[in-house]
Amino acid sequence: MTNKININDIASKYGTTFKFTQPSNIVNAQYVKELRSKLNYTQLYFSQVLGVTKKTIEKWEQGKNPVKGPSAALLYIINENPEILKLLVFDDSKYSKLDNVEEETSNFKLSTDQQNNQGGCTKTLKNVFCAA
Question: Mind listing the pLDDT tens digit for each residue in 1-41?
Fold first, then answer.
């Protein structure tokens, strides 16, 4: 049987303390709205970057659904380190400022040729968007 490490013992040994953040206690409707606004993303685009539905973003921002678990952690990490989005989004300049874009818009199309070519396309975790 292995011994468990007590983090408080280690901290006191080195004269330091550890602070743990529970993102679920910090990330709320206002937090999500402010983060999306800071990033200048539409709800649709933000949902695609995060790999959730637009409806999920709406409900988070309205406070109807709490943001918890890995979603809260990811939003917290993005807020603290926005440069991490470079790992999730390769070219967001064309789509971050779009307004009034609905989920089933005809302004975007997804085709195998465009995915393979990637000319003028934006990659997210879930999709590749190309201007029609």
Answer: 678 888 888 888 888 887 777 899 999 999 999 999 999 99
Q: In what order do the strands lie in the sheet with 121-123?
A: 108-109, 128-131, 121-123
Distance, CA of 100 to CA of 115 (rounded, Å): 25
Going by C-alpha positions, the residue among 40, 56, 50 that lies closest to residue 127 is 50
- Cα dihedral 120, 46, 38, 29 in deg (nearest 10): 170
Q: Which CATH superfamily is domain 20-131 in?
A: lambda repressor-like DNA-binding domains (1.10.260.40)
Q: How far is residue 21 from each of residues 10, 76, 82, measured CA to CA in Å?
A: 19, 10, 18
Q: Is 68 helix (H, G, I), strand (E, B) or coil?
A: coil
Q: Is 70 helix (H, G, I), strand (E, B) or coil?
A: helix
Regarding pTM above 0.85, the answer is: no
With H, G, I as helix, E, B as strand and everything else as coil, classify residue 27: coil
